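Obj.: predict assembly geometry.
Materials: sequence records (below).
Method: joint structure prediction, all chains together.
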Amino acid sequence: MDRNRVSNHTTAPLPMDLHIAAQQLINGWVLGSVYGLIAVGYTMVYGIIGMINFAHGEVYMLSAYLTAIALALLAALGVSSAGWVIVLVLALTVLFTALWGWAIERVAYRPLRAANRLAPLISAIGVSLALQNYVRLAQGARSQGVPALLDGTLRLGDGENFVQITHQQILIVVVAFASMALLAWVVQRTALGRACRATQQDPLMAQLLGVDVDRIIAVVFALGAGMAAVAGTLVTLNYGSFDFSIGFVTGIKAFTAAVLGGIGSLPGAMLGGILLGLAESLFSGFVNTDYKDVFAFSVLILTLVFRPSGLLGRPEVEKV
Amino acid sequence: MNRPVLAAMEPAAALGEAMRPGWIGALRQALLAGGVALLLFGPLSGVALQGYDFRAVPEAPWLLAAAVFCGRLLYLLGAETILGAALLRRLTLPPVTRVSSPGRDRRRRLLAWGIFAAAVIGPFLLFNPWYQHPNLNYLLKVAILTLIYVLLGLGLNIVVGLAGLLDLGYVAFYAVGAYAYALGHQYWGLSFWEAIPLGAALAGMAGVALAFPVLRMHGDYLAIVTLGFGEIIRLILNNWLAFTGGPNGVRAPHPTFFGLEFARVGKEGALTFHEYLGLPYSPVHRYFYIYLALMAVTGALAVTAIRLKQMPIGRAWEALREDEIACRSLGINHVMVKLSAFGLGAMAGGIGGVFFAGSQGFVSPTSFTFIESAHILAIVVLGGMGSITGVTAAAAALTILPELLRNFSDYRMLIFGLVMVVMMIWRPGGFSTPQRRGYPVEPGHVPA
Amino acid sequence: MSLLEVQDLSMRFGGVAALHQVGFVVEEGTITALIGPNGAGKTTVFNCVTGFYRPHQGSIRLHRPEGALELTELLGGPFRGRDFASPGAFFRRLKYKIAGGSHLAARAGVARTFQNIRLFRGMTVMENLLAAQYNRLNRHLLSGVLGTPGFARAEREGIRRASAWLEFFALLEDANRLAGELPYGKQRRLEMARAMCISPRLLCLDEPAAGLNPQETAELAGWIRRLRQDHGVTLLLIEHDMGLVMEISDHVVVLDHGEVIAAGTPAQVRRDPKVLTAYLGLDEPSP
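Observations (raw structure tokens):
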């Protein structure tokens, strides 16, 4: 995700150059929109069944592979216009990944609704291991790549003091926000979204009022997976390279974003994602790149310690 | 947070969906499952990426889908038959907990001591002046690894099995122990035996420091925080080149026998173990020694683990797993009790790490990935969460089976993952019959 | 002498006021009943008294021989302006912020049961009672692992105390059964026995008769009376069974919409017009 980071520390005359800061803010914003998209999956699932879906990071990983496969197939079929390729790849990936999300819930979580709290978590770890290793067996352990589709770069400034935004990055931010807006519309305006919100408030009551709670939960998993797929496609198109283990760290970071924004809150997921992306970019730009993951995880722990309900979440009232 | 409500809605989940679909229904459901499987596996298995190009593997998705179809069909039809239904019920109904009558667990104790004695004496039968097994070195290495996993399994079992706290970064404590020895030796000349208490203490402190802030909140957060912590430790070990040697790792010498080395020739002409005893040199000595030492430590930990279940703290852990709010209403400080479980579990991990470093002679960050945490968790899950015999058996099985099935090593983690899911659905309590100790009652007292 | 003094207690959930300036007194050695229609805030009062909820306002004082204890402070609330004026208040606040929690209420002598029974279901009945005695047994790690005489003595004492309460509640023959396997009535009794194992001064029972048949309810009344008479326990209970309430309580507090609308002896409360209005058509007080 940091292929586009401009690492010209050596050429910068001042350590706190403004253009580097600006560049890092742009990169952070791009990275953050990706985190936000993935965080949506955590936040929605947690909101509706109170469970942390550990396998969500692997769903994101699957979408990266599905993107590459879709690209390869489209190339073989001779589709070459970049616009069409992007649209088709995005649609196919979202569709198939959502199916995976649905299937995971159906197979590994639904039978466990009555079980104790630990069972679904362990089951999710199992799913995560199984998916990683399935992909490793099916596609090999080596890192895979896709060709770049958009090469353009927007450059602001002159000489050595410039800020650049690639067209890919613009694509990421635009598509990310468009899909978030679409999701918000679905949740706020449609009958399906109403059923989702009702189930989140009170599943038993929703059931009594004729909402098919099982179906709603499945839909939420599929929606979450679909959003992760948008992220997976965008990142894969931008960064180009991925392997079977990318889901793990990205998953934790997206979860951090969800917690930071307030788990259970959709705008919170996006806000948390962007904040985490910005913080991480600034950290790796000005402090240390090697420890940027350590920094992100520390953000998670600190958030949980000082504000467990996140920025936009409501504090939980314990039911005695 | 909504879990109790959802749980109330679906009482018999595992069997509920298989409730008598009929032959046609079964076929239809199986076809649906196969069809979905075809869609799921189609792209991922059918298109093998090669650079920017791909190779079609058309048969793979069909095979997988056929397997799903057959599995689903057999399951549904099996559930239709009387025999199959009975079998399924046997498999899926939670086993009834047996409470031993007070003071009657002598037979179990005898069995445990028997196994322990056999494990100590066994290697001597394979290595003595009259008979020496040609491959003993390898066997001992496997046995040492098994014991390390037993140690880790017992430690994690305290946290996950007894206290019900999901720790997904257990490997971090293992790493702390291993590096405490390796780095302690490199910088301060620490010996193996000195490193054991140090490693345990450092790992325990790391556990407490990590858990204290998160233990107060929703349980699931602990899981992800520990996951992150495991990663942090690994990243630091990997990136702090100046101190830890980074990916190149650190040397950790093998343990010595009261200062006597297990080498052919001692360092700087020092006396070695075989010279001191007047034995011919054999590399087996070293592993034999580590094995016996580890056996003693593991045995001690197993006894401790058994005792803990009958001590106030162990009962408090289990009570906390069962109902935290009730615990608080009885004056049990849930934070301290959880912390003690976390700290003790971490200490066991630290000791395991020191032994790992000492037996390998070398540590590097690659030994401490999340996969390792998952492996230890699999041991606890398969062993039946809370059962000490179960954990021991599972540790042995999960270490020895992969050794036997080297050819299938690629499938190991895949199978672990699937088994974890299936176990949670069918036998969340593991395979063994849960056993609880009965207490004698003493009637005739007036409550005070 | 009063054991528990609740004053001016207010609590909100979100924007909804659950309690509004609730005040009442529980005299030492009495049985006090907290009654009111569903949603009146009875359980919220309970959760405040037993240290599970931190009220937004008000005080709950437990008067013990060794001095009064403010139960609302136990959960460690946010700092207030006046904390910075007095070092004592400041350190108390800080102490409870770090090491506070519901368990301190229990340690101060307030035990409780729950409306939806909360047992350690996977443990045996005896283990339930032993777990409850956590703070009274020998918790030294080494002496436990080695099984020292001191440890064995403490355990035996614990088993004796547990046996005594099991006998009291007629559960002795179930000592080595799993708590979750017991029939409902016995589970309710076990929860009371478990609460008694911490030797509380004040025992709070949240709907102890819910789900019991008339015979079991009659037995329950006997036990509650004996707890008070023979063991000097003060009881505070929430109950919907008006027959039971009128029969056993010395003092009744009536709550409606989060406010105390009446308090007094059962006879006084029964005649109170406000109580009649609140209950009329909802739950006829039995004669």
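Conclusions so far: Chain B is about 70% helix and 5% strand.
To do: check interface contacts against the pulldown list.
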